[in-house]
C-alpha cells in the first residue's frame, strides 16, 4: 500500500469538501441578504446581546428605528429620520462619530434603565 497516494487522495477530498462549503456559504449569504431587504423595510444591522435578546436597526421608509428583540416581545428604543441618522451611520469618516460607538452607548443606557 502506497501511503503517499492515500495522503494525496485525502488532501484532494479535503480541498473538495472545503470548496463545496465555501461556494455554499457564498450563495447562502446572497440569499439571506435578499430576505432582509423589502420594498419599504430593511434590517440594517442586528446585534445579539444574549441568546434570547438582541437589538436591531430597521429602516422603514424615511425613518430608522432602534428596536429591542426578546422573548417578551419587541420594544422601540429610539427613532430617527433618515437625514438625522445619516450623520451617525457614517463609519467611513475618521473624525466623525462612529455608529458602533453610538450603539454601545445606547445599549449601556438601556441596560442601566433595566437595572433601575
Automatic annotation (TrEMBL):
GO terms for cellular component: membrane. Keywords: Cell membrane, Membrane, Transmembrane, Transmembrane helix. The chain crosses the membrane at residues 6-24. InterPro entries: Flagellar_biosynth_FliO. One of its GO terms (biological process) is bacterial-type flagellum organization. It is found in: Cell membrane. It comes from the Bacteria. This is FliO/MopB family protein. It comes from Halonatronomonas betaini.
